[in-house]
């Protein structure tokens, strides 16, 4: 094995590291930050005082991270669990103190046939394991969206309404 890249990712120890799509790397450090890297360039990051105002950053620390490609799962030293959108780090799911103490690892349920059975109608499923000797399954509800046929119907209605309004405003338009 040859070292291909070296850079300073955190101030202090790195608690966990995960490989993501497009050669991205996610790191969780003892400096209370979680970072997404492309090579040695910081793409985006999370820090407690920016993302969870009002919660003292010294009380919480990211402990475990996993990147499914679409989502980033995080566990903390206080037992909290969160799911973020991987590319923007927008938080979609958060359970404060899901475990009694340190979350030691998190993992997404794979999108295999048995994994899809566990998912049911949910968008993602994250397993968390903690020092409290418990394993918990966290289900991310499917985000609601309009069906394509309804969106097309609404667009067609808007076009017809626009034409009618133009015909009323400018007789002889058509």
From TrEMBL:
Keywords: Endoplasmic reticulum, ER-Golgi transport, Membrane, Protein transport, Repeat, Transmembrane, Transmembrane helix, Transport, WD repeat. It is found in: Endoplasmic reticulum membrane. One of its GO terms (cellular component) is endoplasmic reticulum membrane. GO terms for molecular function: guanyl-nucleotide exchange factor activity. GO terms for biological process: endoplasmic reticulum to Golgi vesicle-mediated transport; protein transport; regulation of COPII vesicle coating. InterPro entries: Sec12-like (IPR045260), WD40/YVTN_repeat-like_dom_sf (IPR015943), WD40_repeat_dom_sf (IPR036322), WD40_rpt (IPR001680). It holds the Pfam family WD40. The keyword Transport applies. It comes from the Eukaryota. The chain crosses the membrane at residues 146-170. It is a single-pass membrane protein. PANTHER family: PROLACTIN REGULATORY ELEMENT BINDING PROTEIN (PTHR23284), PROLACTIN REGULATORY ELEMENT-BINDING PROTEIN (PTHR23284:SF0). This is PREB protein.
């Amino acid at each position: 094995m040859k070292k291909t890249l070296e850079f300073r990712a955190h101030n202090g120890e790195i608690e966990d590291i995960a490989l993501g799509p497009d050669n991205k790397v996610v790191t969780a450090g003892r400096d209370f930050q979680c970072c997404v890297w492309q090579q040695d360039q910081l793409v985006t990051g999370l820090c407690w005082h920016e993302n969870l105002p009002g919660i003292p950053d010294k009380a919480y620390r990211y402990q475990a991270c996993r990147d499914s490609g679409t989502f980033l799962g995080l566990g903390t030293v206080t037992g909290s669990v969160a799911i973020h959108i991987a590319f923007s780090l927008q938080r979609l799911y958060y359970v404060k103190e899901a475990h009694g103490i340190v979350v030691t690892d998190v993992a997404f349920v794979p999108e295999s046939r048995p994994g899809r059975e566990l998912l049911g109608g949910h968008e993602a499923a994250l397993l968390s394991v903690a020092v409290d000797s418990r394993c918990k399954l966290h289900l991310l509800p499917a985000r609601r969206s309009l069906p394509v046929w309804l969106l097309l119907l609404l667009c067609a209605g808007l076009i017809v309404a626009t034409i009618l309004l133009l015909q009323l405003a400018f007789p002889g338009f058509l």
